[in-house]
């Protein structure tokens, strides 16, 4: 177990493409960190650099107290779980799990004991003598986990381990992996493009976009306090509503909504509203034309337009609603303001300078 | 499930006729003729034939010369198969690691494949020429007086070298594509599990190449037994008497030089049975042992 430190780690491919701009962060001992972002955002490259499968162009990577930039993957004390499992097809499950230990000169009886323990933990005991081809996707994923666990590494690396599984199995494995990591307390870095996986599994999330770190924070931080429109629209399903609004003389205005803010900002801004912060209210200031109702059982989503801009509203299942015109109000304490061009957060957290007694108010 | 079919029963047969007639005329007819004539003693001038039963076969079994040729063929096949596979594997593993200029490197390695066996034989003749062959001179510098066509061992040596050289590119292509079909992530997993490169090769890469390797093994045995004819013919032409030759070359020598069509036919039937056995063995093995996904 160990902490991981990246100091301005950068990746430039021989063709000149900068896959990862200098990234610095620290992962605490035992922490579960998720790297999330769309395809091509550099999250896998970053993980592969930590694993040693990809050269680090610049910067220093430390695992524990040692800089490991030039160490071979086998010498970094890491274990990795791959997207397509990467099991050795010609070896039995037992040999697959034991292979890494065997090469580290572990005594035979210790190997046998560790393999049995891991197999028990992962419900693989009866499959130990099968070949990977005779296993289901979920079982193969467990074998890949077992191969990582028996090594007792300082660091687990997961490269989209669940994306080859079907939705139901994915939910189940997500919980299993998280529980296992809690139990073993091994520092883990997990790469995914699935924001649900990121939100549910992470102690801390690192959101990447175009090779750059957009934001680092706890899932709740990232969700409630996105640092940019990219993070706001990437995290959360459905994503945050982003609409064009106007600041003038200390008043933020969007459609019928007018909100006094103690701020000297002026001109256009992007206003971020989470769908669940919009409330049906016949006296509300926002007039919405509902065009589509998505029935999701536990809740419903209304899609429509306010002043010509698309908006999604999250609705509890008890509330009655029909297509057509509707009035909304919103919980002002959760609003976010972004720069209309750069998309960067402008209000710096909850810096709405509303009077304390108005914070709970709906406007 | 509904099966797609032809309206007329004769159309599919008609479509198969060209292929079937080629097989019939060029494979089964000569094979059947060889089996038949192996039971006869042919008049060398083609005036007649006498049925002799299994006499051609029994005289083969008693022939010391046939035994000698068989022994040489076995040694020759083992050497050619082993070295052409091993060298090709080595080259493929190295070529697989090359990143810059990989394409031209691979193309150059494959070029030899386009050389016809007799041409390869002639190139061997030039390289091993007694008076001015560069390889002969090279061996001379080490005190080895190389004597192609005169010395049994030296001739065999040249045969093996030329045959191996000719076959390496084919094996190389197959091994290289076999290597490239091993999933990248499996190799990376091995990179994390094992720090020794040779350990990774023997534990992971080599077993995953086994299907390719086994297929090539059969191909190479067949090559060494039969397709080296051109090489051997060129290297020993005119004076086969004291020189090494393989079973296939002996079939030709006895049949067309010695005019012993009956004995030659018996030899070719023996070879046919050998090929049949190899084929059966191959299919059995492919079905049983070597499978993975």
Automatic annotation (TrEMBL), chain B:
Listed transmembrane segments: 12-31, 72-93, 105-128, 156-179, 200-226, 265-283
Organism the protein comes from: Celeribacter ethanolicus
Name of the molecule in the record: sn-glycerol-3-phosphate transport system permease protein UgpA
InterPro entries given in the database record: MetI-like, MetI-like_sf, UgpAE/MalFG_permease
UniProt-annotated location(s): Cell inner membrane; Cell membrane
Entry's Gene Ontology BP terms: transmembrane transport
Domain ABC transmembrane type-1: 74-282
GO cellular component: plasma membrane
